[in-house]
Amino acid sequence: MNTLFLKGIDQQFGSLLIRLLPRFKNTRREFPAAPSFLFIRPGGIGDAILLIPAIQAIKSAFPDCHIEILAETRNGAVFTLCSAVEKVYRHDHFMELFSCLTKRYDCIIDTEQHHRLSAVVSRVIRSDVKIGFSGNERVKMFSDCVDYSHDTYEADSFLNLLAPLGITPPEKISKPFLQLPESAKQTVQRLLTPLQSETYICIFPGASIQERQWGEDNFFRLTQLFNQKGFQVVVIGGKEDIDTGNEIVKGNKGTNLAGKTTFAESFAIIQNSHLLISGDSGMLHAGVALNKATVSLFGSGIAAKWAPHGDKHIIINKQLSCSPCTRFGYTPKCPNNAACMQQITVQEVFAAAMSLINKRTE
């Protein structure tokens, strides 16, 4: 559904509901021995993945607690890869949403950064403590508000939501923090048998919008360079990436698995690779969560917020005057043909990848 339309619905309908609902006042701060927590996380898989360290921090602080998630269909499967999560509800499935709405929790943590309807849902579900980001009238729905900044790495922003509970974020996020099922690993082992090689580069060419696309021709020429160095390529993605994947491996040494794997299986492909090359995407965050080396291509997205940290990651960002232009999930149509992405050369991506590979073999 159109992002602008959804933003309009949220602003009008969400604002109206917030005005109608009374301001929330918490009635209790002391939790029972086994408190119950609900995390609300709408959106894509990237946010979902980067929320997991905060979930694990809650479990560490309250070992006997019960943690549930209110997500949606497109990101709900991510939370099944976190052992601390006991149940996942999807708000776009009415009966699951209804079941969640009728429950009671000791604490609800709304991880949505700006939109209002998730705050309304947080207010409606019974709990004594409600935590969320400030920024607009949604603050009325919470007992505790935390400031949000586009200049803070997203995983750290989520960890900051735990401050009202007295939980201090770790100095360094432990990795890997995704737990892949054995069935996914076995399926991937079977799918990769035709490669007859354990040496491959994983490429995710997908992008939700045109402004984040690097182009199949660039990925095709990049694959040729990898082949010359003895590396094969495995392309991952959704069904919408099948044709692109076919073009990337055509005449090259590689395998296109786009549209053929689940989230967990795609993550297993990343886990077994030398490194991952991706734009600003959920798959990039999966690579980070699996502690794999990555080369990421940034343009419209905010690198301070989304780019991975550490010496295992190289971020290529041309830092044009018009970028980044994305705010709260919305990217305006680019009048410059996504110059921020098109100015990234095949040679500099290849050089970045080889420097990480060489560092690994030193």
Automatic annotation (TrEMBL):
Transmembrane segments: none annotated. GO terms for cellular component: cytosol. The keyword DNA repair does not apply. The keyword Cell membrane does not apply. It holds the Pfam family Glyco_transf_9. GO terms for molecular function: ADP-heptose-lipopolysaccharide heptosyltransferase activity. Keywords: Glycosyltransferase, Transferase. GO terms for biological process: lipopolysaccharide core region biosynthetic process. PANTHER family: ADP-HEPTOSE--LPS HEPTOSYLTRANSFERASE 2, TETRAACYLDISACCHARIDE 4'-KINASE-RELATED. This is ADP-heptose:LPS heptosyltransferase. It comes from Desulfocapsa sulfexigens (strain DSM 10523 / SB164P1).
